[in-house]
Design a protein that fits this description.
Blueprint: E1 3-14, E2 19-21, E3 26-27, E4 31-47, E5 53-56, E6 59-61, H1 64-77, E7 83-90, H2 99-114, H3 121-129, E8 143-146, E9 157-159, E10 167-173, H4 183-190, H5 196-215, H6 219-238, H7 250-264, E11 270-272, E12 279-284, H8 288-298, E13 303-308, E14 314-315
Parallel strand pairs: 5-7
Antiparallel strand pairs: 1-4, 1-14, 2-3, 4-7, 4-8, 5-6, 8-9, 10-12, 10-13, 11-12
Helix pairs in contact: 2-3, 4-6, 5-6, 7-8
GO molecular function: ATP binding; diphosphomevalonate decarboxylase activity
Keywords: ATP-binding, Lipid biosynthesis, Lipid metabolism, Lyase, Nucleotide-binding
GO biological process, one term: isopentenyl diphosphate biosynthetic process, mevalonate pathway
Length: about 325
């Protein structure tokens, strides 16, 4: 018997960048995300008689992180036999496009269904959070909020129940290479920045403002707040007292400059960047083709995809 689940990536509009409890993956801030339809992970779990195994994109790969997470699920759900986890990522891995979010959300859903357990998405979000914090938000479609909480119970994600709107994300893929600084390591370093406390306070205010913008379907306000939040987050990396670093490349900066030029032309376009060099441009469905054309004009070799609001976890 086997069970398959599909979960989509999400892009944080208000970022999660720091852990107050690394074991429980409790974040230092609450966050808000948009789930993307075009990027997703499909995961099938099948019992086996030997040991946990991970097959990713048709290749048998290191199981350390997956095995650790499955053992957490065994502690939470009761012991279960070893599993073969067969996963297909329709998103570059470890390049700042939230592949771990969709992967651990799909794995959590597949395992619980394989065990015959029907859990609410809120309950699943607490479990998925232990594998990857952002995975808590990938249980939901459209806009989701992850409450930072103070313990395992109070740190969970839920849908914002936002109205439909013609929002789009133009994804400019600078690199699909595995990033040199992992998200967890990047967060650890960023928390040593002398500006980290100020960023936390700013983020709390932006969290409130973003919810209001989403419910008002104000895409320009959504984009403006998201860009400020993201660029401030990346500034922490540059000012870290322990091993300052950046995910930006020269091409990342060039894309940011192009986005500013697009805005000066009167078009709606705002950038957000997660832990990696790739840039996501928040815009509308009607403006997205103009953004793509402007990027290709200056960077003709750039790989670009346009993503739309995506659905929550599904099961086959």
């Amino acid at each position: 018997m086997s069970t398959t689940a599909t979960a989509h990536t999400n892009i944080a509009l208000i970022k999660y960048w720091g852990k107050k409890d690394p074991i429980l993956n409790l974040p230092t801030t609450s966050s808000i995300s948009l789930t993307l339809e075009q990027f997703y992970t499909q995961t099938t779990v099948t019992p086996n008689t030997h040991s946990d195994q991970l097959i990713l994109n048709n290749l048998s790969v290191d199981t350390t992180r997956t095995h650790h997470f499955l053992n957490i699920l065994r502690e939470q759900l009761g012991h279960f036999s070893p599993l073969t986890v067969t996963s297909t990522n329709h998103v570059p891995t470890s390049a700042g496009l939230a592949s771990s979010a969709s992967a651990f959300a799909a794995l959590t859903g597949a395992v619980t269904r394989e065990l015959g357990l029907i859990r609410s998405n809120e309950s699943l979000s607490r479990l998925a959070r232990r594998g990857s914090g952002s995975a808590s938000r990938s249980l939901y479609g459209h806009f989701a909020v992850w409450h930072e909480g103070v313990d395992d119970i109070s740190s969970f994600a839920e849908s914002l129940h936002a109205p439909d709107m013609p929002i789009a994300l133009v994804v400019a893929e600078v690199s699909s290479d595995v990033k040199k600084v992992s998200s967890s390591e990047g967060m650890r370093r960023a928390m040593t920045s002398p500006n980290y406390g100020d960023w936390l306070n700013q983020s709390k205010n932006q969290f409130v403002d973003m919810q209001a913008a989403v419910m008002a379907k104000d895409i320009e306000k959504i984009g403006s707040i998201a860009e400020d939040n993201a660029l401030s987050m990346h500034a922490l990396n540059l000012t870290a007292r322990q091993q300052a670093f950046t995910y930006f490349t020269s091409e990342t900066q060039q894309i940011l400059n192009i986005i500013q030029d697009i805005r000066h032309q009167g078009l709606l376009a705002f950038a957000t960047i997660d832990a990696g060099p790739n840039v996501k441009i928040i815009t509308t469905l009607t403006t997205a083709p103009h953004v793509v054309a402007a990027l290709h004009d200056k960077l003709p070799q750039l790989h670009i995809e346009t993503a739309t609001s995506g659905s929550g976890i599904t099961y086959d």
